[in-house]
Amino acid sequence: MNGNKLFSLENRIALVTGSSRGLGNVFARAMAEAGATVVLNGTNAETLAAAVGQMKADGFSAHGRA
């Protein structure tokens, strides 16, 4: 059985705090892989922009908010 079908977040928005790097980024990516539009949050604008850019480059719907 496909894990994404078991845990679908399609048509959902996930706000993940501290997600510009580390474990927060891992959790945000997992939610994006499950179909959610992800809003990443972090205190370093440069790191946050890079994380959002990478998510978008990987084909996920992602936005950043400091």
Topology:
Blueprint: H1 3-6, E1 13-16, H2 22-33, E2 37-41, H3 45-57, E3 62-65
Parallel strand pairs: 1-2, 2-3
Structural overview:
The chain has 66 residues and is of the alpha/beta class. Helices cover 44% and strands 20% of the residues. The chain contains 3 helices and 3 strands, in the order H-E-H-E-H-E. Strands 1-2-3 form a 3-stranded parallel β-sheet, covered by helices on one side. Helix 3 (45-57) links the parallel strand 2 (37-41) and strand 3. It is globular. The mean pLDDT is 92.
What are the defining features of this structure?
alpha/beta; globular; 20% strand; 66 residues; three-stranded parallel sheet
The DSSP helix count reads: 3
Q: What's the alpha carbon Rg, rounded to whole Å?
A: 11 Å
Q: For the residues shown, what is the average pLDDT?
A: 92
Q: How many strand units?
A: 3
Secondary-structure content class: alpha/beta
Please state the overall shape, judged from the principal axes of the Cα atoms: globular
The largest pleated sheet is described as: 3 strands, parallel
Instruction: Strand order, main sheet: write it out.
Output: 1-2-3
Contiguous uncertain segments of 5+ residues? none
Entry summary:
The chain is α/β, with parallel strands linked by helices and about 70 residues long. The chain has helices at about 5, 20-35, 45-55, and strands spanning about 15, 35-40, 60-65.
